[in-house]
Amino acid sequence: MSPVSNRKTLQSARAIENEAKPGAVFRHTKAVRSDCVTAQSMRAWQERPDIDNSREVPMIDTIALLRAEHVNFAKLLDLLDEQLDLFHKGGLPNYELMLDIMFYMTHYPDLFHHPKEDLAFGKIKERNGSVGPAVEELMKQHALLKESGERLVADLDGIVNGSIVPREHVEGPGRTYVVNFRSHIEKEETELFPVAAKLLRTKDWSAIDAAIKPLEDPIFGKSAQKRYAAIRDQIAREAGFENMAASRPD
Ligand SMILES: [Fe+2]
Ligand SMILES: [Fe+2]
To answer: Which of 29, 49, 115, 196 is deepest in the core (most CB within 10 A)?
Structure first.
């Protein structure tokens, strides 16, 4: 396996990560139809000049936000899958891109999206015991995704920094991660989000939002972090979202 010349340690990556600015904060104060909000429409909403995103922002349904984030995560899983295809065919995948994707997965979904869901799922389990098994399974999946994601970050970081990492440490676990994350999203959207929409009220979402420290999405948010520029460029190329590349930070 060829080492990648442009080395980037986790330590330096985390220093970049710390550049994150507390920015747009979504707060649930009024329900909107969740299927009306897409990642694109949310981004357009974020960029509205009449809204000050540095302060608490109203009018967004938390389930709509979670669904929109799923759309974003799915794009990254597709990119990761493409790199794993290259890897499987004996080509030279972009290890830095793979590392950046997994670094994001372990620093945004694992730290903000999933904990918010854990709180929501815990509340609906209290109110409807019949969803208990699904809630427990999804919470277990959150923990497993975090563990497997962190292992992938460690192995990819080793590759980027010139370590010899056996092929089976990346390809199999990478494929499993992609498959598990996709099925996790599907289960949430089909089984628990509809229940949460029925059982949780504004005050529940307000309590959940207050419990999870908000962070602007470092890839899809308005002030995307520099370390993720390559991912944004790749998404723009593949999906034709030229506006994403145009708004890339300097
Ligand atoms: Fe989840
Ligand atoms: Fe989710």
So the answer is: 196
